[in-house]
């Protein structure tokens, strides 16, 4: 009951999953948690889809951390370019699909 405002808003679910994935550096862990919550009935499908999109963007944090480690600071050169492309593609894809999570959940729920 107390989290309905969060679960009912795909944008908050997107942001929450993105932050969790960045913090624990594992989109697989985030996705597994989301699947468990959906299977138990605790998380509605539209919120889960938004969270999966957030996890996909959050996983790009790993390449930035790796880039910092190999560049002794902020990523430089090809490392920076790869990180930008990875982050950019995932972000554009997620932002493009996020407004349609209700429609996507209706299609997915038919299977």
Work out the helix count. 7
How many strands appear in the DSSP assignment? 0
Low-confidence stretches: none
Biggest sheet features? none
Helix content: over 70%
Verbal overview:
The protein is an all-alpha fold and 111 residues long. It has helices at 4-7, 10-24, 27-39, 45-58, 61-71, 77-97, 101-108. Helix 2 (10-24) packs parallel to helix 4 (45-58) and helix 3 (27-39) packs antiparallel against helix 4 (45-58).
Summarize the structure.
The protein has 111 residues and is mainly α. The chain contains 7 helices and no strands.
How does the SSE layout of this entry go?
Elements: H1 4-7, H2 10-24, H3 27-39, H4 45-58, H5 61-71, H6 77-97, H7 101-108
Helix pairs in contact: 2-4, 3-4, 4-6, 4-7, 5-6
Feature tags:
0% strand, 111 residues, 7 helices, elongated, mainly alpha
């Amino acid at each position: 009951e107390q989290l309905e405002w969060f679960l009912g808003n795909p944008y908050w679910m997107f942001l929450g999953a993105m932050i969790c994935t960045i913090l624990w550096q594992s989109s697989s862990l985030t996705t597994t948690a989301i699947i468990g919550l959906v299977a138990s009935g605790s998380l509605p499908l539209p919120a889960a889809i938004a969270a999966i999109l957030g996890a996909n963007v959050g996983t790009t944090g790993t390449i930035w951390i790796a880039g910092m480690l190999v560049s002794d600071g902020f990523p430089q050169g090809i490392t920076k370019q790869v990180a930008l492309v990875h982050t950019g593609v995932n972000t554009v894809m997620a932002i493009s699909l996020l407004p349609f999570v209700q429609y996507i959940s209706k299609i997915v729920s038919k299977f």
